[in-house]
Specification:
Order of helices and strands: HHEHEEH
CATH class: Alpha Beta
CATH architecture: 3-Layer(aba) Sandwich
Number of helices: 4
Structural class: alpha+beta
Number of domains: 1
CATH superfamily: Anticodon-binding domain
Number of strands: 3
Shape: globular
Largest sheet: 3 strands, antiparallel
Length: 77
């Protein structure tokens, strides 16, 4: 999160949307106005990847952690 904030200063990043099922967390994030969700589960952590979910379309993609800032910056412009 800190790396993303440093690379994209205009980014508003919330690191947790409460507990419970992942679908409910996505719903809460969307209600707060989030456009994207980043998922860092145990699988992603072990492979150094991040899953990026577009909350409007439901599309998701998995990216290398090192590439997420550049990719996210492109999506937000």
């Amino acid at each position: 999160a800190e790396d993303l904030r440093n690379k994209i200063p205009s980014l508003k990043l919330m690191t947790h949307h409460g507990g419970g099922k992942i679908a409910r967390q996505f719903s809460r994030a969307e209600q707060c106005g989030a456009r994207f969700a980043l998922v860092l589960g145990s699988n992603e952590l072990s492979t150094r990847k991040v899953t990026l979910k577009n909350l409007a379309t439901g599309e998701q993609e998995t990216l290398q952690q090192a590439d997420i800032a550049v990719h996210l910056a492109k999506l937000l412009t």
